[in-house]
């Protein structure tokens, strides 16, 4: 039973401390933070600015390292991996969707989606086939030959999602994916993410300020409340033990 | 081992992929990169010019002089111009047992005059021009010491009259000097009887005439400046030198002719290198800074792009190499831009320099060989590499989270 539960865990943050130096001040972002996300979950991380939502996303994606604590993804501790191994791990396991999509302006939609496949053993023809499939999944097949500047904001974000899923990662990390979009387009993007979660089993962690966006998630974590509750529980545990 | 090779190949594949993308966006940065390209082009042009000049000069001087011929000058003279010798000394040398004799049992000796002459000539428009050239007074025996000598046009000068033959390097430089034309030397009119070649040696930068006429026109009495001697094969040059040094009637300096011109080449090329290379070095530093600036600016403008590559999973090493690749591309374009026009315009072009020892012009060809061009290209690429390495390292260590957050 315990084994089954362990298998289901996709992301585990254990006793995470994260702080950085700002001038002469030490800024503590996370203090003994713990979080567990099961495989196939669609988690929305919400809360006011400055609570470290994006930092958590970066820690999960291996873009940042905790000051102390463990980051375990799919039973593998990643915070101890070397820079090179972390890059390879990221290429195989994580897909990123950013608020500003960060598509390369000189590449077509197809070219942008093919980019992560350069890190795989696929040949050129296979890369093209995979990219076309990803673009079809996000409804952008028709726009494959277009440059980002010829696409609308929503279309750009769809291409960014196609790029995130093209190498079939287990986890998709989205940082304010609808932050720059109008309501209708935002709903389309969120529906797309829900589809990827429900029908393709992707574990999705999404940082958002948008309350409507959180409605699409299977679990919403209000970070302010979550941190407060965690502290209370820790205090209670200390009192019981003493 | 196999894993290591696979990992390295994967990194190369990543770097090539990123470099291809960089190439696609290069036209957007072409104007910003043009400063670096032009700086490197200037450095390449200067370096190649210095190398080509030295090569041309060395080749010209290398072709001058014979291995088995001894040149004799006054002790202390470092050039023929500084030397003075008297007929009595020539006789002593000529009568030495080690000096070869010809079929007529005459010593194989060439007494020569050397004058840094001011030559006046008229161009087609009738305007007078002045050139400082080496005028060599020779005798019949001299031709034996110039095995590559050939008349390219006209005939040899006649002795006892003011006739002169001119080296073909001079004829190339001054087209007005043709067979049958007249020039002024030492205030007198001289008739150009012919044009000679001598295997592109430094002698092609000289005017040759009868030694007696030159002694007379330049009021040198019967003095000469240098003597060439052909020696028997078994001659012990050290012993011969000692013998002549010990002879109170002589005050001489001897050396092989080939060695004499080699040392002159060394002096000249050292001078060019001392002037040329420091200039090139300072320019290279400037070009390197320009490349550095360009690449830093490129990275600053593409920080989000680079961060995105890292987030996707491209390794820092691959990103580093892709940036270096761009720096090398800039250097390559710059290098070619400096080299190719120089090649098409100046290859084989005749340049002249003032021989510091003889104070007359020495003419030589620009030698833009493939080897020199490759050396220059490699130097240009090195500038790009040095200019690109720090920005590449910066790109490699770019903090992704900061770059992606920064708006």
UniProtKB/TrEMBL annotation, chain A:
InterPro entries: AAA+_ATPase (IPR003593), ABC_transporter-like_ATP-bd (IPR003439), ABC_transpr_LolD-like (IPR015854), MacB-like_ATP-bd (IPR017911), P-loop_NTPase (IPR027417). GO terms for cellular component: plasma membrane; transmembrane transporter complex. Its EC number is 3.6.3.28. Residues 11-240 form the ABC transporter domain. One of its GO terms (molecular function) is ATP binding. The keyword Nucleotide-binding applies. Keywords: ATP-binding, Hydrolase, Nucleotide-binding, Transport. It is an enzyme of class 3 (hydrolase). It comes from the Bacteria. Belongs to the ABC transporter superfamily. Macrolide exporter (TC 3.A.1.122) family. This is Phosphonate-transporting ATPase. It comes from Colwellia psychrerythraea (Vibrio psychroerythus).
From TrEMBL, chain B:
The keyword Membrane applies. Its main location: membrane. The chain crosses the membrane at residues 30-53, 271-292, 313-346, 366-390. Residues 279-399 form the ABC3 transporter permease C-terminal domain. The keyword Transmembrane helix applies. It is a multi-pass membrane protein. It holds the Pfam family MacB_PCD. It is found in: Cell membrane. GO terms for molecular function: transmembrane transporter activity. Residues 37-245 form the MacB-like periplasmic core domain. GO terms for cellular component: plasma membrane. Keywords: Cell membrane, Membrane, Transmembrane, Transmembrane helix. InterPro entries: ABC3_permease_C, MacB_PCD, Macrolide_Exporter_MacB. PANTHER family: ABC TRANSPORTER PERMEASE (PTHR30572:SF15), MEMBRANE COMPONENT OF TRANSPORTER-RELATED (PTHR30572). This is MacB-like periplasmic core domain containing protein. It comes from Colwellia psychrerythraea (Vibrio psychroerythus).
